Each structure stands twice: as C-alpha cells, then as structure tokens.
C-alpha cells in the first residue's frame, strides 16, 4: 500500500484509508463482531489511516477503534477524529472550553493521551474565519491534548479559508467522480500550502459501486433513506447531493470504465487517488470483504483515458445541476 504524507501532520498514511461512520450509526446496524472484522481486514490489507468522529454512534465508533488499537499496539495507525456536532450549530459554541470538553471525551473513547488529528466537523461557515477558534486549537496542541488539527468542510470556500491558516494540517472534503469542483481551486491551494487532503464520500454513498438501481430500497435508519434532500444534515453527505435517479444512470456509464479484474468501486477510488494533492481517500466498509476490496483499489493500474471519461459523464449529468451550497 502506497503511503503519502498527510499534510502538515508529517505522518505517513495509506492512500486508501477507512471511514468509520458506519461503525457508529446511520448506515444500518453493524454489530461489534463485524466492526472488529472490518478493522482487522483493513489493517491486514495495508490501511494505516482511520477516520472517525465523536458523534458516530454517540462515540461508539471511537470506542471500537480505541479497543482495537489497544489490542494491536504494533500497528502503525493514525486515527483522525472530528468534533463540533454535539452542540447546537452556533458559532458561539466553538470555544476553548467546549474544545477541551469534546477532545477529553474523544481521548477517553480512543484510550489515548494525545489525539493524532482532530478536525472541526463541518461547523457553521463563520467558524472557519474566527481567530478565536484557531487560537483555541493552537492551545490544545500546546497542551498536548491533540497533535494536529484540521477541518472537515462542506464547501470549497470553507476549505480555502482554512487552508490559509498556518496551523491547519488537513482538509477533509467531498470528492468523487460526481463531485469535481474541489479540483479547480482547493486541491491546488492545498498542494501549495502543504495541507493534506482527505477525500470523503468517495463512492457517492455507494452510487459509484454500480450496485444500485432505481428500485433499490435502504433501511429506515440509513441516511440514504432519510437525508436524500438534506432533512437531517447537509445533503452533500448523501449521494454527494446529486439526484438519486440521475446518479444511477451516471453510475451505469461509469461502471463501463472499470478495467478487467477491478470493480467500479475500486476504479472510482483509484481515480481519486490519482488526483494531484490527495493524501488519502476514506471509503467506509460494512464487512471484511468490503474493506479488503477497497484497499485493493490502490492496485488499479494507471488509466490515462479515465479522467476525460469521468469529466464527460460529469458534464452530461451533473454540471448543469444546482448543488445546494455550491
């Protein structure tokens, strides 16, 4: 597994990481045994980067990772968590006192004294411009509670604002074959500043796997059922904000681009890995087989015709669409 430097953290992380939202909640039930199988399979396949958050299952995801890491202290893991969604989304709540409260809880959940990387979890837009917020984050680094901090964003403007701050180590942003806007300014700015890029929602909530049809139904507790129009949180987190039926059509076209021996999902991940400036991509996995298949995306051969084909599909299906907040 190729390792890349994660921005200003200086840490080497696998180009395919593991997103662990599904180990907490919002994707249907994943029992504890299956969760540990996913973590074990991912690391056995070379994954060295886990991404979690304090709200995934109200801390369940962090706790599972903490127990796994304690049982495998030999593994060279970097664990990134996120904070800021446990309170009302008011910029006034993003204070040093709250940051201490949230990071102390995450430290307990993960069983560590110092968190590897803490990301602001898609906070209100004014937070990204607040000197007070970055001063508080710098204080946590100085105190040893966190080693590095970054941001998770919904918009390119938020990403660019955070990249301009000297302490920002990484930016997590939605990037996939159906969401190309970060390629225009965000990735070049991050490369120039030495800021890492963590690509999330890489399969457009599974659309790019090519397994879904217009008739596919999702469980009631799966956000792909209850957040299709942004009812619970930002719509971009579900199917990348694209119309589901249009996404199914585009996914069929994308599936035809997969090289022999690799799946559409692996091809979609490989396309992201190939984008200059990307540090790691964080697909989720609900089973050990999925975790192994995701990791294998790092072995997809270079496909020089893939990028223009992706852009053609995007232009046909999505460029004219109005994505909320873009």
Description:
The structure is a single chain. This protein is of the alpha/beta class and 326 residues long. Helices cover 35% and strands 12% of the residues. It has 11 helices and 10 strands. The strands form 2 sheets. The chain has an 8-stranded parallel β-sheet. Strands 1-2 form a two-stranded antiparallel ribbon. The relative contact order is 0.15. Residues 322-326 have low confidence and may be disordered.
In brief:
The chain is of the alpha/beta class and 326 residues long. It is 35% helix and 12% strand.
Defining traits:
10 strands; alpha/beta; 326 residues; 8-stranded parallel sheet
Write the layout of secondary structure elements.
Layout: E1 3-5, E2 12-14, E3 18-19, H1 32-44, E4 49-51, H2 60-71, E5 78-83, H3 96-110, E6 117-121, H4 131-143, E7 149-152, H5 156-163, E8 168-174, H6 186-193, E9 196-200, H7 223-226, H8 244-255, H9 264-273, E10 280-281, H10 288-295, H11 306-317
Parallel strand pairs: 3-4, 4-5, 5-6, 6-7, 7-8, 8-9, 9-10
Antiparallel strand pairs: 1-2
């Amino acid at each position: 597994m190729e390792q890349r430097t994660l921005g200003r953290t200086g840490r080497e992380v696998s180009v395919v990481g593991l997103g662990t939202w599904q180990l907490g909640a919002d994707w249907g039930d994943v029992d504890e045994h299956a969760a540990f199988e996913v973590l074990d399979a991912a690391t056995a396949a070379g994954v060295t980067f886990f991404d979690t958050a304090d709200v995934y299952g109200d801390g369940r995801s962090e706790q599972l990772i903490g127990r796994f890491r304690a049982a495998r202290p030999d593994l060279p893991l970097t664990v990134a968590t996120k904070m800021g969604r446990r309170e009302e989304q008011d910029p006034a709540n993003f204070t040093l006192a709250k940051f201490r409260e949230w990071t102390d809880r995450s430290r307990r959940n993960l069983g560590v004294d110092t968190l590897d990387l803490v990301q602001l979890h898609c906070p209100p837009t004014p937070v990204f411009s607040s000197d007070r917020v970055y001063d508080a984050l710098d204080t946590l680094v100085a105190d040893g509670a966190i080693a590095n901090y970054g941001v998770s964003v919904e918009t390119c403007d938020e990403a660019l604002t955070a990249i301009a701050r000297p302490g920002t180590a990484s930016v997590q942003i939605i990037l996939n074959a159906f969401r190309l806007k970060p390629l225009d300014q965000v990735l070049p700015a991050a490369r120039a500043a030495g800021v890492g890029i963590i690509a999330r929602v890489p399969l457009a909530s599974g659309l790019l796997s090519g397994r879904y049809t217009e008739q596919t139904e999702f469980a009631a507790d799966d956000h792909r059922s209850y957040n299709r129009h942004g009812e619970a949180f930002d719509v971009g987190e579900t199917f990348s904000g694209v119309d589901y039926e249009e996404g199914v059509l585009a996914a069929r076209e994308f599936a035809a681009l997969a090289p022999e021996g690799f799946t559409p999902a692996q091809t979609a991940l490989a396309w992201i890995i190939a984008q200059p400036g990307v540090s790691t991509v964080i697909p989720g996995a609900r089973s050990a087989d999925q975790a192994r298949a995701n990791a294998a995306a790092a072995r997809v051969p270079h496909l020089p015709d893939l990028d223009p084909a992706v852009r053609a599909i995007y232009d046909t299906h999505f460029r004219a669409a109005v994505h909320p907040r873009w």
